[in-house]
Amino acid sequence: MARRALITGITGQDGSYLAEHLLEQGYEVWGLVRGQANPRMSRMRRLLSDVQVVRGDLLDQGSLISVVERVQPDEVYNLGAISFVPMSWEQAELTAEVTGMGVLRMLEAIRVCSGVSRGAGGPASGQIRFYQASSSEMFGQVSETPQNEATAFHPRSPYGVAKAYGHFLTQNYRESYGMFAVSGILFNHESPRRGAEFVTRKVSLGVARIKLGLAGELRLGNLEARRDWGFAGDYVKAMHLMLGAAKPEDYVIGTGRMKSVRELAEAAFAAAGLDWERYVVTDQTLHRPAEVDLLCADPKKARAQLGWEPRVSFDELVSMMVDADLRLLTNGTDPDDYDPW
Ligand code: NDP
Ligand code: GDR
């Protein structure tokens, strides 16, 4: 019988790539979708017609229990979150509830539905394997570079703090109940399906608009921030490998190479034959209350134990995104009403 996966955050960037990957692997894929009329639902159905949809919300414990009871998954991937860092200052409590407490609710739903009673820990309690989408934002103000699985956390945003809670809780359920519960500490990963609020997609869309004469400038915040950017399609494969491993362990996933926002802009404008310095305007209002200056992964453990490696380079990623946005806007899509899928 096909293995069955339940994905929260199915309407997001990673949810779409992960669902495609699992379907290719012969899985039966179920996606948790929230809301009465989720606007991303029709796009999801169009792209992922083989995914079965269940309604639920990470804010609603009962809904998660019902979903796990109904789907009876072999694997649960918890990708649902408020994931945009600046929003986590504006709606800090909601971020704590969805991005942090949502992990608790999902773990409790799995624990209850798989009959793991409190105190009944020990090796491999319950059958459902759980993946938590942890983040390099937990490292925040870094104490060492590159960052590995043992690097201390110093989160710099309510988002990073909420992710750290989810991370430690996943570890705690593994230790308390013997559940197969793991976290992937993923560094920034991008694609043509990335939300337009994140810097890579903001830049690729901005370049495409300028190239096509639809805009004259691109406003950005901190150009000196450095990130380890990879391709989302590569990273979802690591999530799947973690749940297929012999032992439940956490892994850092990234490329091991850093670039600044300035270098990102330079590469993206160059990919369209433009000089970035003519168009980029820095805007103080886009700076964050507390910045994460640099992040760089040390993915040695994932390479050695999972055989995982990123395939798409930074330059290939930037070209892929710029080309996709040029095609999107050339095809007549209203730039203010674009469809990132
Ligand atoms: P997106 O922002 O693209 O997707 C977030 C998803 O969460 C959406 O499907 C959204 O659904 C869902 N969601 C939001 N609120 C709720 C809720 N209350 N209940 C259920 N679902 C909800 O994120 P990504 O795909 O980029 O990231 C996936 C996960 O990985 C996130 O947890 C993110 O924090 C984490 N992460 C991402 C990294 C990256 O670089 N992309 C790096 C490290 C970690 P809806 O359509 O309803 O809004
Ligand atoms: P990040 O991604 O905060 O790292 O979180 P984002 O792309 O938003 O920012 C990256 C860096 O770019 C700087 N920056 C700008 N950012 C945005 N969004 N818009 C701008 O105009 C701009 N100008 C400069 C930022 O200050 C920052 O330093 C992403 C999310 O996917 C999280 O959910 C995930 O956990 C982490 O990556 C790993």
TrEMBL record:
Keywords: Lyase, NADP. Catalyzes the conversion of GDP-D-mannose to GDP-4-dehydro-6-deoxy-D-mannose. One of its GO terms (molecular function) is GDP-mannose 4,6-dehydratase activity. Gene3D superfamilies: NAD(P)-binding Rossmann-like Domain (3.40.50.720), UDP-galactose 4-epimerase, domain 1 (3.90.25.10). It comes from the Bacteria. GO terms for biological process: 'de novo' GDP-L-fucose biosynthetic process. It comes from Nonomuraea jiangxiensis. This is GDP-mannose 4,6-dehydratase.
